[in-house]
Design brief:
358 residues; 9 strands; 10% strand; two-stranded antiparallel sheet; five-stranded parallel sheet; alpha/beta
Amino acid sequence: MFTHRKFSVYFSLILTLFVVFNFTVWHLYTKKLLTRDDDLATGDLARMGYISSAIHERTNSLTLQRQHITQPDAAIQTDLITIGDSFSRGNGWGPNRYYQDYIATKFNWNVLHVDQFPRTHSYSSTIIALANSGFFEKYPTKYILIESTQRKIVERFSRNQDYELTFPLAELETFYTSQENSDFTLPSISAINNGNFKFVLFNLLYHFSDRAFISNVHKTTLNKQLFSIGNGKELLYYHSDITSIKKNTPDSLNTVNQQLNDLAQFLKRKNIQLIFMPAVSKYDLYSEFIVNNKYPKDPFFDIIRPLDKEYIFIDTKAILLEELRKGELDIFFCDDTHWSNKASDAITTHMTNLLPDK
């Protein structure tokens, strides 16, 4: 007979096991994955895939001689303006996380980073609006560098631009003189949360599927050590690196190239040179080292490299693949979709051979 007393005992036992399970998994594993210390960072892939073995803890620090700025100053000659996504906002974390600081230091330049203006639909339209508003007359620059993660380039740079787009300069200045480097923040979370159950489930399913069937993170093996975490052969990458491959067709990338050429010609009338820096996807960069890779090659760089360009092209795949073939570790962080300070250093060193007035 199932008495009230038995029910109370079973309920108390289940509740105790529930609490003990959550607190044990939280303190041993998921707390590191799902929370972030202001000074100690871990990566987005480990967090999304609940893969604690890949955590690459790193301390945020700025030690380079020069750093970029995020607010325009008419009293300072700006040599380069950058605009882009999380790579440009330093979301890989760790030491010297901004590639802009490497440019500022290696070139002895004043580098300004601007975010996309909220009332525009793309990086290109933001640049056009700045040009038409008189922004570059008040804050002149020699170069504008657009950065974009590889998987989003077709959607970001395929549309026709309105080259008459403008906004009042005062409105733009109000936005840009108040912007700061904004860090991605994680929501507050308690020790009892569904992430603890996902941790157990995902780590079970990864034994049967390279993306645990339902995860946005692939986990696979490399044929050589390329990371400093664990045995150095575990590769994590974002599922969208795979799903975006189908977008990278000759037609779509010819359109992207033409849109960038049009923007470059527009900027030349302002005596500004356009630089385009596609941030190679982690999958594409490491794909030649994946053991028994069952996914297709991403043709993005093969297609866009030979196209006629009016802009300066930073081939991040070629630059960073050379580093990997030399055996350099942690070009990307093991646990993250973003490259490391080693990559920023290599890329900006290469840039010194491309820009004439270094």
